[in-house]
């Protein structure tokens, strides 16, 4: 069995309400593959889900430095940015989401989670405007198509109501 297959199995069996068995299953892989980007990411994700954001942060940073790629990189950006938000580091969180949106322009998740960070940072109008922009960009129903220009205009108007950021 390959390392990726073993990690896939551990992640598939995780119980989000009790992450300790998942953490315990991942730690031997961390010991034997301490610089593997995916192992670092999965360990970080397990600690993150367990509510240990400060510990998760270090693993996410190491995973990024180790060269995560593709979907794992996208997921790491989203999770790391959310962790930074949970730690109250709003500007750092937004920076990660900006990087994610630049690297993965076809993915709505970074923009959605960036909006959550905006809200947490005290900019609810900007957060709401960002979510409207996600709808315009990623929802392709006939109704959204019909009102695309109006939604964009409303997003711009709502964003203009935002107080200057206090970050």
Topology (elements, then pairings):
Blueprint: H1 3-12, H2 20-32, H3 37-49, H4 53-65, H5 70-86, H6 90-103, H7 109-120, H8 124-138, H9 142-160
Helix pairs in contact: 2-3, 3-4, 3-5, 4-5, 5-6, 5-7, 6-7, 7-8, 8-9
Structural summary, described in words:
- The structure is a single chain.
- The model has no long low-confidence stretch (mean pLDDT 95).
- The chain folds into 2 domains: 1-68, Serine Threonine Protein Phosphatase 5, Tetratricopeptide repeat (Alpha Horseshoe), CATH 1.25.40; 69-167, Tetratricopeptide repeat domain (Serine Threonine Protein Phosphatase 5, Tetratricopeptide repeat), CATH 1.25.40.
- The longest helix is centred in the C-terminal third of the chain and has 19 residues, at 142-160.
- The protein has helices at residues 3-12, 20-32, 37-49, 53-65, 70-86, 90-103, 109-120, 124-138, 142-160.
- It contains 9 helices and no strands.
- Helix 3 (37-49) packs antiparallel against helix 4 (53-65) and helix 5 (70-86) runs antiparallel to helix 6.
- With 167 residues, it is an all-alpha fold.
- Helix content is 75%, strand content 0%.
Write a brief structural summary:
With 167 residues, the protein is mostly helical. The protein is built from 9 helices and no strands.
Primary descriptors:
elongated, 9 helices, 75% helix, mainly alpha, Serine Threonine Protein Phosphatase 5, Tetratricopeptide repeat, 2 domains, 167 residues
């Amino acid at each position: 069995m390959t390392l990726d297959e073993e990690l896939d199995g551990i992640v598939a069996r995780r119980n989000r309400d009790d992450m300790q068995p998942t953490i315990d299953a991942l730690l031997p892989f961390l010991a034997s593959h301490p610089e593997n980007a995916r192992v670092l990411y999965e360990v970080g994700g397990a600690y993150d889900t367990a509510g240990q954001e400060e510990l998760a942060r270090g693993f996410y940073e190491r995973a990024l430095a180790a060269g995560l790629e593709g979907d794992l990189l996208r997921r790491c950006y989203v999770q790391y940015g959310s962790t930074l938000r949970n730690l109250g580091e709003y500007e750092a969180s937004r920076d990660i989401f900006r990087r994610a949106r630049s690297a993965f322009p076809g993915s709505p998740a970074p923009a959605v989670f960036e909006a959550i960070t905006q809200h947490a940072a005290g900019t609810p109008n900007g957060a709401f405007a960002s979510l409207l922009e996600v709808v315009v960009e990623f929802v392709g129903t006939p109704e959204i198509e019909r009102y695309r220009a109006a939604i964009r205009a409303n997003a711009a108007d709502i964003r203009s109501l935002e107080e200057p950021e206090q970050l």
